[in-house]
Amino acid sequence: MSVKILSFYQDGCMGCLEQEPINAEVESTFPVSIESINAKEDPDSISIYGLRVTPTTVILVDDSVVEKVEGVLHLEEFSALLKKYL
Fold first, then answer.
1. Scanning 6, 14, 29, 54, which has the fewest C-beta atoms within 10 Å of its C-beta?
2. CB atoms within 10 A of CB 86
3. The domain containing residue 46 runs over which residues?
4. pLDDT over threshold 90, residue 1
5. What is the pLDDT of residues 10-33, one digit of tens each?
6. 54 close to 39: Cβ distance less than 8 angstroms
7. Rounded CA gap, 85 and 78, in Å?
8. Is the pTM of this model over 0.90?
């Protein structure tokens, strides 16, 4: 089972700035890497993942979306989600 995490952001987004250190903490705690993607620079992702807001965190297992969280994903919730798939 392959777990992939995408974190969509855009410049000037306050929630996105809040999400950055949370992502760093998750990467240091769990055996995962988080791919940060500027949604404005990757318009295909907007339609592929149905993005409406930033930040949005998408968790994929074997390339299928299993979780999509809009807004800031706090550490406790992020950890609980990941434990289901790791």
1. 14
2. 11
3. 3-85
4. no
5. 999 999 999 999 999 999 999 999
6. yes
7. 11
8. yes
CATH for 68: 3.40.30.10
Q: Is 73:67 a contact under the CB 8 Å cutoff?
A: no
Domain count, the chain: 1
Q: Which two tokens stand for residue 64?
A: 């299928």
H or E segment to which residue 30 belongs: none
Beta partners for residue 9, in sequence order:
38
Burial (CB < 10 A; 0-12, 13-18, 19+), residue 10, is: middle
Q: Do residues 49 and 20 touch, judged by C-beta distance below 8 A? A: no
The angle subtended at Cα 39 by Cα 67 and Cα 20, nearest 5°, is 70
